[in-house]
Design brief:
The chain is mainly alpha-helical and 144 residues long. It contains 5 helices and no strands. The protein has one domain. Helix 4 runs antiparallel to helix 5. The radius of gyration is 17 Å and the shape is elongated. About 4% of the residues have low confidence.
C-alpha cells in the first residue's frame, strides 16, 4: 500500500508523462502537415524512402495521423497504458529510421523518449484512470 505522500509523487510523475506523451506526439503529428518545426521529409532515411509507395511528404502525412491518434489515445482515453506502449514502439521505429539516416543524436533522444513512454505505461498500472472524458482527466484517488 502506498501512503498519500508517495501516491501524490506517483500521480505527479504519471501526469507529467501522460501530458508529455499526449501533447508532444499530437503536436509533432500535426506539424507533419505544416513543417513549421522542421522539414520532416528530410528525416526519412533514403533506404526506407525507396521502400514506401508514396512521396516522403505523403508518408509524413500518414506518420502525422498516427502520431496524433497515439497522442490523443494517451491523453484522452482510459487506454493510456496500451497507447503509451504504442508511442514507445513508434519512437523506437523512428529511432531505427534515424539511425539508418545517420541522425544518431536525434535517434538517441527518441530512444530515451521511448523508454520514458514505457515508464508511463508501467506507472499506469498503479494509477487508476477513471474515465476517458476530458473533464475527468485526473487519476482516481488511491484506494486501499
Amino acid at each position: 500500500m502506498i501512503d498519500n505522500a508517495r501516491q501524490r509523487i506517483v500521480d505527479s510523475a504519471w501526469w507529467t508523462l501522460r501530458i508529455s506523451f499526449g501533447l508532444v506526439p499530437f503536436l509533432a503529428g500535426l506539424d507533419k502537415f505544416f513543417n513549421l518545426l522542421v522539414d520532416w521529409p528530410k528525416y526519412l532515411a533514403t533506404p526506407f524512402g525507396r521502400l514506401i509507395p508514396m512521396s516522403p511528404q505523403g508518408f509524413m502525412y500518414v506518420v502525422g495521423v498516427i502520431e496524433m491518434v497515439a497522442g490523443m489515445g494517451v491523453l484522452l482515453t482510459r487506454w493510456t497504458r496500451p497507447f503509451a506502449y504504442v508511442v514507445a514502439a513508434w519512437l523506437t521505429c523512428i529511432a531505427i529510421n534515424l539511425i539508418a539516416g545517420r541522425w544518431f543524436d536525434i535517434a538517441v533522444r527518441d530512444l530515451v523518449m521511448a523508454a520514458s513512454a514505457v515508464t508511463l505505461a508501467r506507472l499506469t498500472s498503479v494509477v487508476e484512470v477513471r474515465s476517458g472524458a476530458v473533464a475527468r482527466l485526473h487519476p482516481a484517488p488511491a484506494t486501499g
